[in-house]
Amino acid sequence: MEMTRREIIQSLAVAGVAAAVSGTANASLAATVQDLPLAAILTDPTVPQPIEDGLGATDPGPRNVTLDRLNLDMLTPPMTDAGDMPNLKFSFSNVPMRLTDGGWTRQVTQVELPIATAISGVDMRLKPGAIRELHWHKEAEWAYMLNGTAQVTCLDTEGRNFVENVGVGDLWYFPSGYPHSIQALEEGCEFLLAFNDGTFSENDTFLLSDWFAHTPKEVLAKNFGVPQSDFRQLPSPAQRYIYPGKVPGPPSSVRVSDPYGTSPQSFIYHLLAQKPIQARGGTLRIVDSSTFPVSTTIAAVWQEIEPGGLREMHWHPKDDEWQYYLEGSGRMTVFAAKGTARTFDYQAGDVGYVPANMGHYIENRGKTPLRFLALFRTSHYADVSLSQWMAVTPPELVQGDLNLPQEVMNALPKEKTLIV
Ligand code: MN
Ligand code: MN
Hints:
This protein is of the alpha+beta class. The protein has helices spanning 5-22, 27-34, 38-43, 65-70, 72-75, 208-213, 217-224, 251-254, 386-391, 395-402, 406-411, and strands at residues 51-52, 55-56, 89-91, 98-100, 103-108, 120-126, 131-136, 141-155, 161-166, 170-174, 180-195, 206-207, 242-243, 268-270, 277-279, 282-287, 299-305, 310-315, 321-327, 329-335, 341-347, 350-354, 359-363, 370-376, 384-385. Strands 4, 5, 6, 7, 8, 9, 10, 11, 12, 13 and 14 form an eleven-stranded antiparallel β-sheet that branches. Strands 3-22-19-24-17-16-15 form a seven-stranded antiparallel β-sheet, with no helix packed on it. It has a five-stranded antiparallel β-sheet with strand order 21-20-23-18-25. The site of one manganese (II) ion has 5 residues, from loops.
């Protein structure tokens, strides 16, 4: 089977991403991506041009060929795209890292992606033993472990403590204001954090060291019933936040006896251990407060779409969708009513966004599985399937609207297909 020009460019872009991630980017690939002389930009068949169906013209540059290869649906949008659409894509690669001696963190909030009012996200890495300082914040915190293992602690408002370990595919959820910490185990870890407010900033958290640094020493002495001199050695908050530490023992060995007992509610959930919903073109795992009771403000769907598969055309009646792409690549067209639609391409590490009620699909046009998380600021996940709606509506109405042949009407599924 001959590859289309678009497929060649896509596979090249994906190979470039894979090579960069594994650190094996070779000189020739780097050259094709970065150092193309002007003449080559117009003649190299792997350089995409804004030309489709006889429309458009070559782009001699200046241009960023690397970005063009990753955003082919910007360069040559489907002819069905139309109108002005807010930006619905932002890559974590386009935000600055905050580097510390214990790891790093970076965030995509409403500052970077203005449409994303409901949810903001943080990508955080901790070296083995490193500690994300004891802290709290007004937003609830939902997290998905991407790499490695960690130990988390939390305290509920009844004074009951909680310590557990989490690994890849596990979640945690800390309600608004509940104090907590995260510490990497032997292999270190990386996780995605999501907060139920697009304006949240990881720099606005209430830090234990910060409060101590900004409380008069005589008040600290009175509060804890010890001499002021005991607070001479307090570290600067600048040395905390994320800082190196020693790998802790198992939860059973570090748990402190608590007169109020241990929290009866679990703050963690093993999402990848959940039996997936098997759809024709992939799998889904849905987690909200019906399966993970503490998670009352964030619902999530972990989705895997096989090559060629399509998350069927659908929408969400109440909630915006905040996406985080884990593996592979996909494209999504968002329909915004008033004749407006726009198509975006996503790769691992990108954030996508769909405002409530806007129709959308997600298609895997790559050669490897597409895995992504869709998050919603709600206690219960909900969607409407276009084809299922049409299947169970009086056919005269559907045919009156669309003038469809009977074969299409016969093929409509009465159950949600989810991924075809
Ligand atoms: Mn936190
Ligand atoms: Mn959706």
